[in-house]
Amino acid sequence: RIREGRYTFDGVGYQLPLNKPPHAIHGFAIEAPWEVVDHGEAPDGAFVTGRFQITSQAPPMRDHWPADAVLE
After folding, report:
1. CA–CA separation, 62 vs 40, rounded Å?
2. Angstrom distance (rounded) from CA 4 to CA 34
3. What is the pLDDT of residues 22-69, one digit of tens each?
4. Torsion over CA of 49, 9, 7 and 57, rounded to 10 degrees?
5. Of the candidates 22, 27, 11, the residue with the CA atom closest to the CA atom of residue 61
6. Is the dihedral of CA 38, 55, 71, 26 positive or negative?
C-alpha cells in the first residue's frame, strides 16, 4: 500500500492511480498483460517465465514511475 498513492524518488514526486481509495495498492503490473518469454517442462513439473515492461505492457503508467521497470 502506498498512502494516498504519492511517493518521492530521487527528489521527484510521483502520483499513482488510487485503485484502493484513498491509497494505491498492489501496483499496476498485476492488471497488465505479460509477455511469455520461456516455457517448458522439467522432471519435477512445468514452468513459464513472464516479462513485464512498463513501456511495452502499460505505456500510460510510465509517467507514474521513475524508470522503465522490467519484471521477469
Report:
1. 32
2. 27
3. 999 988 888 899 999 999 998 999 999 999 999 999 999 999 999 999
4. -30
5. 27
6. negative
